[in-house]
Design brief:
The complex is a heterodimer. Chain A contains two helices and four strands, in the order βαβββα. By secondary structure, chain A is α+β, with helices and mostly antiparallel strands. Chain B is globular, with a radius of gyration of 18 Å. The chains are: A alpha+beta, B mainly beta. Chains A and B meet through helix 2 of A and loops of B.
């Protein structure tokens, strides 16, 4: 599983492209949740291998995307 | 299961309650691959990967109708869009984003925990949420059938805000924060035995594997959503399967053993 990292709009646009391309219907309404970095203004969307984007691609979200350390390791 | 001996009742007698929710009524919500109520008709709504069509899947012999499920999904993957609420409250567990939906069929094979059908969460992005109920409750007694499947750090349940979460289990962590303050101070049980909540490692030791887990007298008063699976980017999302979640917004202390016993008999027939 990989992710694209970009602005909220870039992620939403990619999400919409996949959603339309895959023709989701019924109770499935879109490709992916948009993930918000809890520390800085940055967004990510799960990559669909059938759809390319020029956004930065990462295989996993780095630790800078994790919630503040005291919350999970206090 | 729990059925009277055939022919034992005369036509004028009313059959005794045979399903968990008929015996222990008043649940706020109940999700399972097992039929838990005499009035429940569907367990899951499933999206197949081949063309993204969806179909409801019900029960056969009180368990998920896996034959119909496989006929629908074929040799592809099947994902859960809806874990139907069997309580009668229409308080479904849902996921409308395709890539966040948990799995029930993997390449034409029904996902199982031992031989029991199991809704599988990847521990990365997949989750179900309830935006109707189970949050905003001053008291919530919950019973889970979970199989952690090798995951060594997990949270469940949680809200959409990272500071609102339920039990944290984490192998090797000596942190004594095992629930968030927002969850109250519930009593935790595994297979009917009180869980050692000394730290996250002891919670992990007591809850990992395939078990009946109970959270008695939890609170979700300030939660605005109730989720199971994904909590946040990182390592503590729930990876494994969940074959049942039954929740009451009332004191079930007196019924705990009875509810656990029925769930255990379903999970370990």
């Amino acid at each position: 599983m990989a992710y694209y990292i970009g602005t909220n709009q870039e992620c939403e646009d990619y999400n919409q492209e996949v959603t339309v391309g895959e023709n989701y219907h019924g109770t499935t309404t879109r490709w992916s949740d948009i993930i918000e970095n809890p520390i800085q203004v940055q967004y990510a969307v799960i990559k669909n291998d059938k759809y390319h984007s020029d956004m930065e691609e990462v295989e996993v979200l780095p630790e800078s995307w994790y919630p503040p350390i005291p919350l999970i390791e206090d | 299961m729990f059925l009277a001996t055939p022919g034992f009742l005369t036509p004028t007698q009313t059959p005794a309650a045979t399903y968990l929710l008929d015996i222990y009524s008043g649940a706020a919500a109940a999700y399972s691959v097992f039929q838990l109520s005499s009035t429940a008709t569907n367990s899951l709504r499933v999206r197949r990967s081949s063309d993204n069509a969806e179909q409801d899947i019900g029960f056969v012999s009180d368990t998920l109708d896996t034959a119909s499920l496989l006929t629908f999904v074929g040799s592809n993957d099947g994902f859960v869009t809806t874990y139907y609420d069997q309580s009668g409250n229409s308080s479904n567990f849902t996921q409308s984003s395709a890539s966040n939906q948990p799995m029930i069929v993997n390449a034409g094979v029904v996902v199982t925990s031992d031989a029991v059908p199991a809704v599988k969460f990847d521990g990365i992005n997949e989750y179900l949420s309830n935006t109707v109920d189970l949050f905003g409750e001053a008291r919530l007694d919950q019973f889970f059938l979970t199989d952690t499947d090798g995951d060594t750090a997990y949270i469940f349940p949680n809200s959409s805000v990272t500071s609102y979460y339920g039990m944290i289990a984490w192998s090797g962590s000596t942190s004594t924060t095992t629930t968030s303050p927002s969850y109250g101070s519930p009593s935790l049980y595994q297979n009917g035995v009180p869980i050692n909540v000394t730290n996250r490692d002891t919670v992990y030791t007591d809850t990992n594997g395939r078990k009946v887990i109970s959270h008695i007298d939890a609170a979700t008063s300030i939660w605005t959503q109730y989720r199971f699976g994904f909590w946040s980017a990182g390592v503590v999302n729930f990876g494994g399967s969940m074959s049942a979640l039954v929740a009451y917004a009332s004191d079930q202390s007196a019924n705990r053993v009875g509810i656990e016993t029925i769930l255990d008999s379903l999970y370990n027939p």
